UniProtKB/TrEMBL annotation:
GO terms for biological process: methylation. PANTHER family: METHYLTRANSFERASE PMT14-RELATED, SAM-DEPENDENT METHYLTRANSFERASE. InterPro entries: Put_SAM_MeTrfase, SAM-dependent_MTases_sf. It comes from Hibiscus trionum. SUPFAM superfamilies: S-adenosyl-L-methionine-dependent methyltransferases (SSF53335). Belongs to the methyltransferase superfamily. Keywords: Glycoprotein, Golgi apparatus, Membrane, Methyltransferase, Signal-anchor, Transferase, Transmembrane, Transmembrane helix. This is Methyltransferase. Its EC number is 2.1.1.-. One of its GO terms (molecular function) is methyltransferase activity. The lineage of its organism: Eukaryota, Viridiplantae, Streptophyta, Embryophyta, Tracheophyta. The chain crosses the membrane at residues 16-34.
């Protein structure tokens, strides 16, 4: 039957008409795709952006040291608030360890030397100046032995510690011969003696804690044994000791054993030492030694050199009675036994204990064991006079908390905390993926700034370290990374230490426990998204400026909307900035903002100078 709308019925169309229809469809499809790609006349704006934007390589942001020759790149619009320089009296400003504020607090248990941060109305909203004549620090390893006087213009230690070989002043530099109070002949010989008992050479010992470090010569010389030492000392009458340490390129923070927990996780360090640190180990029923025990890994070592060890030789020099010193040493021995430490060595000025690998052979009074709690929750928490329990084990040979591989295998091996499922949301597989991701990110950073990975950036900070992937990808004898785990982020610092890296807990709403100008490179991954509703971006950026060296660099990685806010504030801070696309392309909302701090120094009358 034939339809009235198709009178011809099933009559076939001619091949020519079919070909014409197909050809027209193809033509219009290609034309539309060409225009949508941004290269047609219908999108001239896209053509211009594509021509002008290169988001992978900086052509006009110079990372080399050149003082005031940096050209300001792409100033933010609208115009940012311009931050003025602080008075030159704030050259060494440490907001949470200022002497005037400290003296208002009790001296008992060193409380006045702990962190006491300024209230909102007392915070500085200016740029901390470098001292007149400031110079780029010597590169490692020369920096271990030499520091420019202009950078840390404090000579008091050269007089106070002259006979102990801490530091000497020669011409326009300080020289560090490597001596210490208990090793005036040099740190190398001292470490050699420790290494006769402690397996320092084979990678078993990677992380160390130096309590009351002075200028950190022990930590400086441990670095050549591939050991990372976290050194701390208070800001006290030994002026600038931690500042000297960091200027030398040695990890250190301002800190003290006082009334609150140390800002490190439990089982963090493979060894700890006190070289005449003058910490009263037997005070408060042994509370300070119990805190060292908390952060010491099962199987780790504790070294004590100085009072009361070898008291028979030194009691007159120390101006203490034989009976007093003998009683102190006996009490330390008793405390060590309660902590399940075994004495391994005592000769001359040195005594060494080893913490047992588990509690199977310990004889402890259960009343003295700390109540169940998160032993890594330590930020501003009061120290307890109790012993941190070992993690449970199923056999006498099992290492409590998990056995670690020797370094460097330990760096990428799955950490015990992850293998045991103790880090929420992190599995062995996601850990390995995180490592791959950070290797990719660091390679992208190196394409942006070719100085990354060189000795030019010795002191590096990761403000939001996560699992430590950035530091692991950057691992090199040329640099070290302070891995900061924010107190409001997921607690991963224990994982960082299990990898053989070092770090610290911190709240970025407050000042960091360091001197100004102590870091060459700062990495801020997701920091500002994390703190978006917690505190002022301005305060965090001013603190970053305080701790960054002149001509140092910052890498921000965050959402583009967040980075635009950051960039606007940074426009008034004497930084040169440039936005960069994510390494996977411009459609990814996460971007990379890179900044370089300009060289300038303070001068009298609140004015500043760009000259050396």
């Amino acid at each position: 039957m034939v339809s009235k709308h198709n009178p011809t019925g099933n009559k076939k169309r001619s091949p020519l008409s079919i070909f014409a229809v197909i050809a027209l469809c193809g033509f219009f499809y290609i034309l539309g795709a060409w225009q949508r790609s941004g290269f047609g006349k219908g999108d001239s704006i896209a053509l211009e952006v594509t021509k002008q934007t290169d988001c992978n390589i900086f052509t006009n942001l110079n990372f080399e040291t050149h003082h005031n020759d940096v050209e300001i790149v792409e100033p933010s619009k609208p115009k940012a608030r311009v931050f003025k320089p602080c008075d030159v009296k704030y050259t060494d400003y440490t907001p949470c360890q200022e002497q005037d504020r400290a003296m208002k607090f009790p001296r008992d248990n060193m409380i006045y030397r702990e962190r006491h941060c300024p209230p909102e109305e007392e915070k500085l909203h200016c740029l901390v100046p470098a001292p007149k004549g400031y110079m780029t620090p010597f590169e490692w390893p020369k920096s271990r032995d030499y520091v420019h006087y202009a950078n840390v213009p404090h000579k008091s230690l050269t007089v106070e510690k002259a006979v102990q070989n801490w530091v000497q002043f020669k011409g326009n530099v300080f020289k560090f011969p490597g001596g210490g109070t208990m090793f005036p002949q040099g740190a190398d010989a001292y470490i050699d003696e420790l290494a006769s008992v402690i397996p320092i050479a084979d990678g078993s010992v990677r992380t160390a804690l130096d309590t009351g470090c002075g200028v950190a010569s022990w930590g400086a010389y441990m670095l050549k044994r591939n050991v990372l030492a976290m050194s701390f000392a208070p800001r006290d009458n030994h002026e600038a000791q931690v500042q000297f340490a960091l200027e030398r390129g040695v990890p250190a923070v301002i800190g003290v054993l006082g009334s609150i927990n140390l800002p490190y996780p439990s089982r963090a360090f493979d060894m700890a030492q006190c070289s005449r640190c003058l910490i009263p180990w037997t005070a408060n029923d042994g509370m300070y030694l119990m805190e060292v025990d908390r952060v010491l890994r099962p199987g780790g070592y504790w070294v004590l050199s100085g009072p009361p060890i070898n008291w028979k030789t030194y009691y007159q020099v120390w101006k203490r009675s034989k009976e007093d010193l003998k009683a102190e040493q006996r009490k330390i021995e008793e405390l060590a036994e309660r902590l399940c430490w075994e004495k391994k060595y005592e000769k001359g000025d040195i005594a060494i204990w080893r913490k047992k690998v588990n509690d199977k052979s310990c004889h402890r009074n259960s009343a003295n064991i700390c109540k169940p709690r998160d032993t890594d929750d330590v930020w501003y928490k009061k120290m307890d006079t109790c012993v941190t329990p070992f993690p449970k084990v199923s056999s006498a040979s099992e290492v409590a908390g998990g056995e670690l591989k020797k370094f460097p295998a330990r760096l990428f091996a799955v950490p015990p905390r992850i293998a045991k499922g103790l880090v929420e949301g992190v599995s062995a597989e996601s850990y390995q993926e995180d490592n791959k991701l950070w290797k990719k990110h660091v390679n992208a950073y190196k394409r942006i700034n070719r100085l990354i990975g060189t000795a030019r950036y010795r002191n590096v900070m990761d403000m939001n370290a996560g699992l430590g992937g950035f530091a692991a990808a950057l691992e090199s004898p040329k640099s070290w990374v302070m891995n900061v785990v924010p107190t409001i982020a997921k607690d991963t610092l224990g994982v960082v230490y299990e990898r053989g890296l070092i770090g610290i807990y911190h709240d970025w709403c407050e000042g960091f426990s360091t001197y100004p100008r102590t870091y060459d490179l700062i990495h801020a991954n997701g920091v500002f998204s994390l703190y978006q509703n917690k505190c002022s971006f301005e305060d965090i950026l001013l603190e970053m400026d305080r701790i960054l060296r002149p001509e140092g660099a910052i890498i921000f990685r965050d959402e583009v909307d967040v980075l635009n806010k950051v960039r606007k504030i940074a426009g008034g801070m004497r930084w040169d900035t440039k936005m960069n696309d994510h390494e996977d392309g411009p459609l990814v909302p996460e971007k990379i903002l890179v900044a370089v701090k300009q060289y300038w120094v303070g001068s009298k009358g609140n004015s500043t100078s760009d000259d050396e």
